[in-house]
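new request in #modeling-help
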Amino acid sequence: MSSPDFWTQPPGTPPDASNEVAPAATAARPTAEQVIAGLRATTEGGADLVQLLTPEGERVHHPEFDIDITAEEIRGLYRDMVLVRRADREGNALQRQGQLGIWVPLLGQEAAQIGAGRAMRPTDMAFPSYREHGVAWCRGIDPTEIMGMWRGTDHGSWDPQEKRFHPYTIVIGNQCLNAAGYAMGQKFEGKVGDDDGEATICFFGDGATSQGDVHEAMVWGAVYDAPLVFYCQNNQWAISEPLERQTRVPLYQRALGYGFRGIRVDGNDVLATLAVSRWALDEARHGNGPVLIEAFTYRMDSHTTSDDATRYRHSDELEAWKLKDPIERVRVYLIKQQLADQDFFDGVQAEADELAARLREHTMNLPDPGPERIFSNVYAEEPATLRSQREEYQAYLSGFADSTAGGGH
Amino acid sequence: MAAPTMNNAPGATGQPPKTTTLGKALNMGLRAAMERDPKVIVMGEDVGKLGGVFRITDGLQKDFGEQRVLDTPLSESGIIGAAIGLAIRGFRPVAEIQFDGFIFPGFDQIVSQLAKLHYRTQGRVKVPIVVRVPFGGGIGAVEHHSESPESYFAHTAGLRVVSCSNPVDAYWMIQQAIDCDDPVLFFEPKARYYEKAELDTSLVPEPLFASRVLRRGSTATLATYGPSVKTCLAAATAAAEDGLDLEVIDLRTLSPLDLGPVFDSVRRTGRLVMVTEAPSESSISSEVIAQVQKECFYSLEAPVLRVTGFDTPYPPSKLEEEFLPDLDRVLHAVDQSLSW
């Protein structure tokens, strides 16, 4: 790896006496400048970054994590990424037009999510945070099913058990412990240990790695040998705070401290995220989990539509990452290798536009929930105390029925 | 809630009544639930080999194995968070928080996830978890070992909160809580773990979410729960010597509250004293008062009075006898009510 060895050396390594220029520091006590320099040195990933398709669309090989994939499968991944990006941009537009309260964009993270999502088997379980629209897509959740929570008509409308995709979790890091418990359950049920085994994957961001729950989840996953893949999308920013505010070491290296493997993958390379995720899930289902994957990517839009990234980061950073776009490199590869013709690209684009139109139509016609929704399913069985509160409110509302035609007020 | 199956329980086979401590009754109840349903698992710090610091889970790991009685990492958010994942997978975890004051690292998972998952998913995801919490003071312990945090949880929609006060209730309530499809915070009065009573496991239990009149009376009503039940019964016995006939009600369920018996009682006595170890401000006792003044407005002969822990942190244990409601403070409040 390419980080300066002055802070990756084991403690006690004698400082290089010949180097009079560098400020004195040990592995345990680097200066702030050295820490930041170390992190920046790893921004490109260095030798440890797993990459199978360069930003220029060149196929490269990796000694451990290569992938055997057909042209049709690559076209499928391209289609996935184009469609989820189109749905994402439509979500953003719908918020700007007042149709959604908020939208959480995934722009730039398509490869990180589609690779992981497509690596999962139907029997695997996923615990997302709240930006995983691409993983949801791979789990068979239509983008229309996600819109309600951003419009304020529901808290997520899919069936988590049927889709094996837990509800979005907004409190940062909570879902990692829930995933650890779920994975322990898979193990306790004897569903781990061979090719037919099950695995669980949890999604979180670089900011979440500072949460106690993520740390605890790694401890639990490790000590119970849970079939669990920790999938960190390091998109460099936690709202306005850069990675330097969360860590001194590259995130994938933290796995070592918990006793399992950590892999840094080019999160903008869908072949690499698919290969590494598939490997990690297989490790987990065979009983060799957990695994930490750091998908090194970039949040190309703001944190949410309520955020303004121009206040805290330079546009040249964004421009640099645009050159590493996850979709463009696949398009270039497909063209250069003559694996897709213009009809294919036109077809995908038409499909994307159709999806966006359907999403818009669906969202704008989402009915507001009735007031009874406030009280429904708080408990498996409604207590008498809540019933009387509900009935009292219903009686209050019905008092307006005579004076207003619509029954509202 | 699942239909009660207690009468078919292995533990309810008509064993002759036996004198049992509250702690042992919990142990027996846990064992019966584990025998009845292989999905019931016990998890927490030191609950396995050691049997828990209060020995409530004694012997369970030996008999049910390490995959059903888990000695967990020292991590309360982890205990609750992992229990949630296990419940989603189909298990019925019984999680032990070692002491009341240690529940707060798990507070986020309890309030943010455990309480809300059923609502968020509109009933598609159930999280039938029991969180056992030894609570309350009176054992001369160091800081964070004597607290009464139940009001935090009663304030949170989606959770059910109960407290047992005697061995018979302990035996049945823990099993009923495990059978409940909602998450249940189960508060155990640690100072009463060694209280004894005759336990007849062949009897049909009271419903879980119901309060109960423990002693009939006509002069004034005492409402309480958990460790203070014993105090109130003693106060009623002492008052009887002075010709005062106190009614004592064990609330048992703190969320939802079952105040019907309290309303009935106050309509007869006209006077209510609420007794808790928990501080009074924004508490279970506050809620009881709010409900009683609404339902019994024309029956009240005096304001509802409270005898509670003070609105302070739990004091150094040499002062806990001052802090905790005792017989004299309860009787003093009864006198105040009667002379209002």
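bot summary: Residues 22-36 of chain B form the longest helix (15 residues).
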